[in-house]
Every structure is written in structure tokens, then in C-alpha cells.
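Dear colleague,

Thank you for sharing your sequence with our group. We've completed the structure prediction you requested, and as agreed, I am returning the results in plain text so they can be pasted directly into your records. Please verify that the sequence below matches your submission; if there's any discrepancy, let me know and we will rerun it promptly.
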Amino acid sequence: MDDALSDAYALRRAMLGDAYVDAQTSETDPVAREFSDHITRQAWGVWTRGGALSNRDRSLLVLAMTAALGRMEEFRLHAGAQARTGVTDAELDELLFQVAAYCGAPAAISARRSLREVRAARAADEAAATAAPAAPGGSASGEGA
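Please find the predicted C-alpha cells below.
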């Protein structure tokens, strides 16, 4: 793996999390693995190339583009990663007004529904984490020194 692909995978992991990337790269089929490398090099390589856009800006653009294109699976994936990208709930809400104005109501409505699903899952995860008993010598949140 060359440095550019390695950097792209590292950023993909930082933005989407290890579990997602591990699931995508665990394929034993060589064509599937090559495809994953290709997508990572192409899509995440643009994130690592530098330039005037921050990762937060790039995240907002990806969210707007996937919403506009009706690619709700990708929209949900990136909306779910917002804590790691620096995008706030308020920014996502506002983004959907822009999508509605420039891409149409159907795209924004679908994205709004997907965003509700992402937020409901996040709330359920947070509730489960809060309800989990603390491990001996640790905290319920799993945070440590």
C-alpha cells in the first residue's frame, strides 16, 4: 500500500470509525478488496490532498451532495460520523434548508427522515451507555485515564 492510500485509509478510519472500515475491508474476494482500495483512494484521497477546505467543510459538502443525489445510505453514514468531523446538529439542520432550496423538497425530505433515524440511533446508544453499570474500578462511560 502506498503512502497516499495509507493516508486515505487513516482519514477514512478517523471520520467513519474502525468498525465501519474494518467491515468494508474484511472482504476476502480480491476484486472486492481492490474496489475498496479504489474507492478509498478516490473518495478519501481528495480529503487528504490538502487545499483550502477543512475536514468539517468537506463533510458538509459530502452531506449536501449525498442528500441532493438521494444517496441516503451514504448520507446516514456521514451524518452518523458528524461527531468526528466537527459538524453540529444545527449545521446539519441548516444544510437541509439549503438542499431543499437548491435541490428540491423530495431530496431534503428524504435526508430529514434519514437524519431522524441517525439521531434516534445516537440517542438510543447514549441511553444504553448511560444505563450500563460501571465496571469495577472504572466508569460507565468507558472513559479512563
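Summary note from our side: The CA atoms of residues 100 and 108 lie 5 Å apart.

Kind regards,
the structure core
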